[in-house]
Structures are given as C-alpha cells and as structure tokens.
Design a protein that fits this description.
The structure is a homodimer. Helix content of chain A is 35%, strand content 14%. By secondary structure, chain A is of the alpha/beta class. At the A-B interface, helix 1, helix 3, helix 4, helix 6 and helix 7 of A face helix 1, helix 3, helix 4, helix 6 and helix 7 of B.
Chain lengths: 353, 353
Amino acid sequence: MDWRQNIREVEPYVPGEQPNQSDMVKLNTNENPYPPSPKVAEALAGLDPDTLRLYPDPLVTDLIDALADFYHVKPSQVFAGVGSDDVLAMSFLTFFNNPDKKPVLFPEISYSFYDVWADCFHIPYQRVKLKDDFSIDPDSFLQPNGGIIFPNPNAPTGLALPVDTIEGIVKANPDSVVIVDEAYVDFGTESALRLLPKYENLLIVQTFSKSRSLAGMRLGYAIGNEALIQCLKNVRNSFNSYTMNRPAILAGTAAVKDRAYFDRTRNMIMETREQAKEELTKLGFTFPDSKTNFIFASHRSVPAKKIFNELRERHIYVRYFDKSGIDNYLRITIGTPVQMEKLYRALREILAE
Amino acid sequence: MDWRQNIREVEPYVPGEQPNQSDMVKLNTNENPYPPSPKVAEALAGLDPDTLRLYPDPLVTDLIDALADFYHVKPSQVFAGVGSDDVLAMSFLTFFNNPDKKPVLFPEISYSFYDVWADCFHIPYQRVKLKDDFSIDPDSFLQPNGGIIFPNPNAPTGLALPVDTIEGIVKANPDSVVIVDEAYVDFGTESALRLLPKYENLLIVQTFSKSRSLAGMRLGYAIGNEALIQCLKNVRNSFNSYTMNRPAILAGTAAVKDRAYFDRTRNMIMETREQAKEELTKLGFTFPDSKTNFIFASHRSVPAKKIFNELRERHIYVRYFDKSGIDNYLRITIGTPVQMEKLYRALREILAE
C-alpha cells in the first residue's frame, strides 16, 4: 500500500505531433493556414503589460458580449473556455452525471477525446455505429442514454448532418443533454443554433482554433439556454474561477468582431478544399465529401501508412490514425494553395514509385 | 424527469470581487502591487501574432525548463497549469481518488476552494481544527485519510509552519499524497522543496499570481517526484492537452528568468508588510504574524464588517469573509507604500468616528 492506491488511472488523449521545422508543410492538426485577423495583433499591441499583475475579468464580459452579439443570443447563453477541449471537458463533468449510470452515446468513429473524458470522469459510454458510408445514423441515438455528443461535421470523416436530422435527435432525447460539437461548422455546414429557442437540452460547442486562426490562444465556447449555461458556469467556478487570461480575452474579442476577415479566410479555405477534392481524385484517392478544413482520404492502391511516412520524410505532415476501421485513411488539413501544391507534387512522386 | 436529473450539483467558489475604478485602492485579492518584470513586456512584444494560428507547445517546454532551472529540479518534476487553481483542481482529480473513500484532510480555516473541489469531484473530506492561535496542528493529520492538503503559509491567517514540521506530516502519511500549497511562500517562508528527494508522496504547488505579478496571465505549477508529476500530466492530458496558451508560456518563462526583479519586488512587499504590522498595531488591530503578502487583522473594538464597508465607501477594497470563526477579520493585501498610507489615513478616520 502506498500513495499510488489513490491515483486516478487514465489513458490520456494523444494529441497530434507538433513538429517545428522552418521548411515544413504542416497539415496534421487542422490549424488554419492564415494568420488571425489583423485586429487581433492590434488588440494585443494595446495590452498594457502592467495590468497583468491583476486578475482578469472572471466574467469574461467583453468576449461573451462579442460572441452573443455575433450569434444573436443573450450573453447569459454563452460560456467561454480554454479551447473547446476545456469547454467539452467541463460539459462532460456537468451534464453527463446521470445517477442511473446510463451510457453516454457518441459515434464509434469520432473525436477521440470523447472516450478519454468519459473514462477520466468514470462516465459509462457506448459508441454507436456509423452507416457504411461513414455518416452518422440518427436512429442510433434512439436508445436509453445519459447524454449524447457528436461533432457536426463529424471528425475525422468530415461529413455533416442536416439541422433537421439533428432536431430529430434532440427532440427524441428530452431527458439528456445533447452536445453538438461544431468545431468545423464554419467551413460550410449549417449550425444547429436555430434550434436553441425550441430545445433547452441542446448545447452547441465551437472553437477559435480552426475558423478563427487562434489555436495558440486556446479559446472555445458553448451556446445554449440560460439554465444549461448557468450549470456549466457553476461547475467551471468549482474548478477554476479564472480560466481565461487577459491576452486570450482581448484576442478572442477582436477576432469575433472582425466578421469580414473571418468570412474571407474561411471562404478561401473552402475554395482550396474543393480544388483539393479534384486533385486528390485525380491522384486516385477516395474520401467522404468533407464540409471541414480537412479531407479524410484513402488511396485506392497505396496504403495510407506508407504515404504518411513518405510525406513525413519530405517534411509534409498529415495525420494518420493507427486505429481499426480508419487505418487506411489520411486526414489532410487544408493549407494555403502553395502548401497544397507542395503536397500534390509530393504525392505524385510517392504514388509514381 | 428531464435533462436536469443528470446535472452535477455544485456550490461554486465565489472569488473576491474585481472592482475596476480608476481611483480605487485594491487590497482585496492578494495581487502584487508592482507590475511584472520588464522582461515579461519584452517577451510579449516579441510574440508574432501570426504564430497564434498554431497550437502552442503541449509540453510547455520553455516554461518547464525555466522553472526546473530556477528550483534545481529535473524538468520531469515540474507541471504547469492555468493558475495554481487549475493545478490544484487537477491534483484533487488525480491524487484524491482513493477507493475506500477515506476523507481528504485540510484545515478548517484555509483556502476556501478546497471543499469546493472535493464536493465537485465527490471526494469525502474532513476539516481539521486549528490551534487556538490559528496555527495548523500537525497532529491533526495523524488519522486515516485519503490525502492531505494545506497552504503554507496558511490563508487567510498568514501563519507558516517550519519545514521540519511539514516533514513530520509527510513522513507519517506514506499512503497519501500530501499537497503543500505554497501560493505565498515567497514572502518569507522556507519552501518544502528540500524534502522532495526524501519523500515521493509530496507535491508542492506554487503560483505566478502573487510573487511574480502575473495574476492576469493565469500561471501556476507543481513540483514533485517524476512519478507523481507523470500522473498529473496524464490526467491533464485526459482533460485538455493544451491548457497553456502562447502568451502565457512566453510571459511565464521571462518572469522566472528574472530572479533579480523577483527578489527586489518581494523584498519591497515584505518591508511594507512589516511597516504595516506597526501601523495596524498602533491603530488597535491584532493579527497573526503574517509571512504572506496580506495581513489577517481584527480590531479590538470596531467590527470588521463595519470597517470593511466604510473602506469600501472610500473605494478602498479589502477582503471580508462572512464565515463563522473569522467574521471579525479583514484580509488586507499589502500594496505599495502609497496605497498603504491611503489605507492608514482612511482607517484613522473610520476608527475616530
């Protein structure tokens, strides 16, 4: 017997590697290839370092107000956290606490953090099957559960569900909180936001890491009805009452307010993605029809792992999941047109070998 | 039955108010009255906003290395988080997970977040009595437990235990992790760091919010043996693998490296504190002998709450806890000499009424 008896045993999530080479093409962690809005740089330049001696605003008022304004909801409907991972971790802790230990449901192929959070907080869960085309089967959520979570679009498949289908899931589960993880929603999918006035058991989670180019600032948020958001705030305030530091609040607020830049850069990424679909098809890849800033592609003859390794040797990084069911796929983040040209050139070389 | 059945019920921690008036004297949340090191401003000026599109270093290497260097420990012995609250929350989750549900022990008068974390994570706990002079009774920790935590110096009393006494507690409890919360240790108390080579069940937690003037940046850390730190990292990586944003890593690293500034400012605060003890005694206050950046003071004739309210009317903010046993005390943060003069003047007026 020693102190080890008291330790919480976990299998931690393994994030994508973060290589740091000057000549690399980094298409492995779904970062935005464009810098954040110039308004972010301006806001940070205006930060008086002397103010850092003081705690930040625990209510994160400026950022919450900017988000409420952007999404036409009340500030009391918005929650901010240290990236959407923090928001989701707090949400698992808050909403998936059912006394009967009914399982939380999520798709079998999905964001690989869901089972990690469930294990960490000792929440029972069940992975539900996808359809053969990798799409989420809404009927799989019609069974007793202690909560539901899925990304829309789903990751790493890139496939989106229409909001009407999501409405069916939310409506059929009034006794559960249904979390729609919209990390990639800004790249061409309709958000479930319009369902909020009708369903108080719906929570929508988004991030600044993808469409707002602020992965390095750690910013995410949830939008839901006031009661749901208050529960989340209570648990956050029982964990850490000051999660958002001063630069994050400033940068996030500035980014949200620059709608024109947001629209311009996400449109550029969607255009590049559509071109990428053509190029990858020509190269012999198949993939679900992505609505995200990545493409989940499999080559008709060359194993994904071989392509992954050969790209890596050329300092082109994509994501490979050594996981049954998806181990012949590469998740390729959409970069700039110049980065994508480098990728196509490398793929042509590798596939011609 | 509805979704509310699944909610985690909590009584959240209520942080000290954060008033924001230009003429105020803010002595209520133990912030440092001096700005962070000029090296912090330099480091932040060097942040290229374009890099914010990329995730930060998940290993927080620069900051961890700087702390390891400062404290003469291995980098694998250091864990960083979003303020010491985040580090402590993760530590409760990681180390106080005992299967027999034995209570975690902490002092009855102490940091008021301990019971909040325990409640939030459904950890049983027991508050142990202080001695009559408000000092921690080391014998109170000689009973079956699932973990031990106490601040040294204790808050809000300001009283410190000698390291030899702490050694007795750690040695007597090999089956528990003992967390020493050293948020205020840099203001004149010896750290328990020198015990680390002898005891693998000891975790030391510190913060950048007090002695390093970075409350607004949310930075804290833990130091312990490698096995303990690895457990903490595993749980953190099961919660949020990127908690530290780019500006926080830069600012924290620069602050740790500027030892001269750190020593100069903490010495100024300790000098002002010793003067404050004289002034407050002259004004009729009594207080435990603080080794922190605050004084926990009670007036021999005027109720604390009355003084608190009258100071507040003059825009001088101190902390008052409306809590049995300490409801006739004010916790007064040590400010600059100029701020303290304003406080003494106001107190003279209030007490002369």
